[in-house]
C-alpha cells in the first residue's frame, strides 16, 4: 500500500476525461487499495483515480463515518443509469483546497459498475452516498464540483486561490503574519 499525491486545482489532469478500464487485474486492485489509504489519510469520503494522476475510470468511497472501513466501495467504470429528484448539498473536494459550496445534484441515483473481483453490481443511492457517487463520477468526466457553481462563485474561488498562491496561506489562529 502506498499513499499517492492528490492533484489540486488548477491541475490540467483534473479536466481530462478518464478512460475505461478494459482489464481488471492486480494492478487495478492495488491502485484501488492505494486510493483508499490516500482517501483516509487526506481525510475524505471519496477519491477518483484522476485525482491521483491516473486517468482511468476508478473511484473509491466510504461514507460510513461511524465505522470507517466497513462499507468501502471500489468501483470500476461506474455509470449512472437512473436519476430522480434533486437535492442541494454542501460539497468540498480533496482537489479543491479550502472551499465548500452548495451543489445541486440528483436526490436518488442508480449506478452500475464493476468491482475489483470482476462482479458487475448496481447500487441504489440517496443522501450522502448519492452525492458522493455523483461527485466522484464527475471527476472521471473531467468535472470538479466548482464547475457546477455559478460563474460568480467559481470566479470568487479562482481569485481566492490566486491570492493564496501569490501571498501564501493566511496565518493560522494565534499566529501573526510575518510582514517580511
Give the key terms.
two-stranded antiparallel sheet; 26% helix; five-stranded antiparallel β-sheet; alpha+beta; 3 helices; Peptide Deformylase; single chain; 180 residues
By oligomeric state, this entry counts as: single chain
Kindly provide the name of the CATH class: Alpha Beta
Helix content: 25-40%
CATH-level-2 architecture: Alpha-Beta Complex
Give the overall shape: globular
Class per helix and strand makeup: alpha+beta
Structural overview:
The chain is α+β, with helices and mostly antiparallel strands. The chain has a single domain, classed as Alpha-Beta Complex (Peptide Deformylase), CATH 3.90.45.10. It is 26% helix and 28% strand. It contains 3 helices and 7 strands. It has helices at residues 26-41, 127-140, 151-167, and strands spanning 46-48, 58-61, 73-84, 87-93, 96-105, 108-114, 120-126. Strands 1-2-3-6-7 form a 5-stranded antiparallel sheet. A two-stranded antiparallel sheet has the order 4-5. A hairpin with a 5-residue loop joins β6 (108-114) and β7. It starts with 25 loop residues before the first helix and ends in a 13-residue tail after the last helix. Residues 174-180 have low confidence and may be disordered.
Amino acid at each position: 500500500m502506498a499513499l499517492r499525491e492528490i492533484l489540486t486545482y488548477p491541475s490540467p489532469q483534473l479536466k481530462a476525461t478518464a478512460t475505461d478500464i478494459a482489464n481488471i487485474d492486480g494492478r487495478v486492485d492495488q491502485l484501488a487499495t492505494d486510493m483508499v489509504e490516500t482517501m483516509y489519510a487526506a481525510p475524505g469520503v471519496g477519491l477518483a483515480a484522476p485525482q491521483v494522476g491516473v486517468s482511468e475510470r476508478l473511484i473509491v468511497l466510504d461514507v460510513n463515518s461511524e465505522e470507517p472501513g466497513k462499507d468501502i466501495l471500489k468501483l470500476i467504470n461506474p455509470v449512472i443509469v437512473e436519476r430522480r429528484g434533486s437535492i442541494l448539498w454542501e460539497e468540498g473536494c480533496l482537489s479543491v483546497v479550502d472551499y465548500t459550496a452548495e451543489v445541486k445534484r440528483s436526490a436518488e441515483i442508480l449506478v452500475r459498475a464493476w468491482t475489483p473481483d470482476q462482479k458487475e453490481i448496481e447500487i441504489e443511492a440517496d443522501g450522502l452516498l448519492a452525492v458522493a457517487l455523483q461527485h466522484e463520477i464527475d471527476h472521471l468526466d473531467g468535472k470538479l464540483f466548482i464547475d457546477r457553481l455559478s460563474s460568480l462563485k467559481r470566479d470568487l474561488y479562482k481569485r481566492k486561490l490566486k491570492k493564496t498562491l501569490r501571498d501564501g496561506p493566511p496565518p493560522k489562529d494565534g499566529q501573526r503574519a510575518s510582514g517580511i
